[in-house]
Amino acid sequence: MASDDITHTGKKMSVTVKINLSGDELKRRLRSKLEEKTKAPRLNVGVNNAEVATYAQYLEYGWVQRVTPKQAGFFRGVHGVNLPVGTVLTNPPRPFLRDTATAEGANWGKLFRQAFIDLGSAEKAIKFLGLHAPADVKETLSKAGTSLGDFPLRSPLTLLMAKNNHNPKGRNRKDSTGTLERAEAGISSGKLERSIVSWLDGG
User: Fold this and answer.
1) Nearest to 116 by CA among 105, 127, 106
2) In the chain, domain spans
3) What is this structure's pTM?
């Protein structure tokens, strides 16, 4: 199974799951089913929420920026950190979509093939897969990595900013990347995790 194509539209961000089958008989049966339609359904797994799609892109690919005068004042005044203007800040990639697709691709292929045999329909089988794949992505976010490896730890500056992030009553709250003092860059709750879904194109 190949699933390394990634799409970001500003409203959605996903990996596209492509089914690569093994076994001549299974290929023949699937081909005959797909020929009944002019366009086979395509499964996407990812973020389907415009509010968090940009954040998901930053998490997936990382970012690099230089500190502006306004940001320097913010860090100094709010967090007590002196960052000279022009300081380079780097947030490393944490590819929760691509790494999940790579790590779980073989399992997704097995799920699809068995569902196709049991259900006798490529569309039903891929819908069945769509019920399971988002859970794997959420697990990657929760564990801050996959069987391929862990994501980079959050920096001391990020942890400091998270620790200083209080609600109006002065009680600590969870930030968008996990619990306040957790060095692992996983996501244990929040909009991003709830936005991980699957959907079909075509069919």
Assistant:
1) 127
2) 2-201
3) 0.72
